Amino acid sequence: MDKTEGDRETDARTEWAEDRTDWAEDRTLLANERTFAGWMRTGMAALGVAIGLKAVFGAFEPTWLAKAVASIFILIALLIFAAAAREARRAQARISSHDAEAQGARRMLALALMLSLGGLATGAILWLL
């Protein structure tokens, strides 16, 4: 039994709709990567504020107060890194990749962990200075 022209058009439209859905999922995965990168930049900015506070308040007395304020920004950076890794992992678990090659959740987690370790080391250095 041959398909009619209308059936072939319907099949083509269905295929196009499926392609558009696949591309939308790929765009969402790539947007998730950009969002993750934005969160990482924001965390690094918080670390930069912590370091900047040490430079600005170097001779500030009591020194523990300036260090405590800088530590707040380090804590904020650590929370941002953790939230970014968690949300990126959750988003990737919900969406499947079709044509795009998105970064893996493990790679994003590894980056967040390394930046967190760097943030902790920055805090230790600030307290030792």
TrEMBL record:
It is found in: Endomembrane system. GO terms for cellular component: endomembrane system. Keywords: Membrane, Transmembrane, Transmembrane helix. The keyword Ligase does not apply. It is a multi-pass membrane protein. Coiled coil: none annotated. The chain crosses the membrane at residues 42-60, 66-88, 109-128. The keyword Transmembrane helix applies. Residues 27-92 form the DUF202 domain. InterPro entries: DUF202. This is DUF202 domain-containing protein. It comes from Limimaricola hongkongensis DSM 17492. The lineage of its organism: Bacteria, Pseudomonadati, Pseudomonadota, Alphaproteobacteria, Rhodobacterales.
